[in-house]
Design a protein that fits this description.
With 150 residues, the protein is α/β, with parallel strands linked by helices. 32% of the residues lie in helices and 28% in strands. A seven-stranded mixed β-sheet has the order 2-1-3-4-5-6-7, covered by helices on one side.
Length: 150
């Protein structure tokens, strides 16, 4: 029993040491100064080991257009991380999954302003939503799905 306990403690120590030594991921976020949920999403990223460069702009539309974000996938902020485009309230875990998989896509999006997505928390209520991958030719696919809760 003591051996098993020691083994578990060693595994936890190694896991925590690896998490603490992981280098933060640099991400640049383009957002409007008047959008409160964007700031909450930035806090979500920072809490999940992202080093955020916050670019506050009067008009984010030119950024969206220059990065080929389809209109139907647009949201309130756009981010760039390791060459990928992140549109809207994409969970940090999905961004990390994308970076690890090195998927051949332009980026990820959570279209609109989904209640319960990171930065759009409203108590315990969460709407169901999908994180969508997209390509330059506007081809899309479901990357992750999240269920509703009330």
């Amino acid at each position: 029993m003591n051996f098993l306990k020691a083994l578990i403690l060693t595994a936890l120590f190694i896991s925590n040491a690896n998490a603490e030594t992981q280098k933060p991921v640099d991400i640049t976020v383009y957002r409007s100064a008047s959008c409160g949920c964007c700031g909450k999403w930035l806090e979500h990223l920072k809490a999940n080991n992202f080093n955020v460069t916050d670019k506050v702009m009067e008009d984010v539309l030119p950024i969206k257009q220059s990065h080929s974000i389809p209109e139907n996938l647009a949201s309130c902020h756009t981010a760039i991380v390791d060459g990928y485009v992140i549109e809207g309230h994409v969970p940090a875990s999905d961004i990390m999954k994308l970076l690890k998989s090195k998927a051949k896509v332009l980026g990820l999006a959570v279209p609109g302003m989904v209640k319960g997505s990171p930065g759009m928390e409203m108590g315990e209520h969460k709407d169901a939503y999908e994180v969508v991958s997209f390509e330059k030719d506007q081809k899309t696919a479901v990357f992750s799905s999240y269920e509703a809760s009330k």
